[in-house]
Fold this sequence. Notes:
By secondary structure, the protein is mainly α. 69% of the residues lie in helices and 0% in strands.
Amino acid sequence: MSHRTSARYTALIRARLEEERDRLLAEAEQLSHRASSCEQIASGERETHPADAASERAEREIDVARRGSLETRVSDVEAALSKLEAGQYGQCEDCGRPIPVARLRALPWARRCIDCESRRAVHQPPELGAIHAQDRGFHRLSA
């Protein structure tokens, strides 16, 4: 085990990851409730102006994309928690090298080092890269 996996470090990272997972799951739940409400309203017998209908469709599409992004992030967080328990936290999934501590502080769920992540981003379609980049914000937790 490296210095990265000391008991104190592990507990701190676990708490940050669990808090992020809980936040993401709560946000996904809110999106699901909103989608259910919109579907109930849309199924009602009401006349909708075409512009309003277009706006509602656009909002639903954004919500669907956001839910997909949240699911990906939850998967990343769960993978980080599993790696933490297995003593493999902070190791790049592509090259196997340690992920720099600064990157892990910014993105505790990072699966790859910056070099490997950059190589993947080059091969990713632009629209997915934009959604992915937008979702990379991390809500800093007190340490």
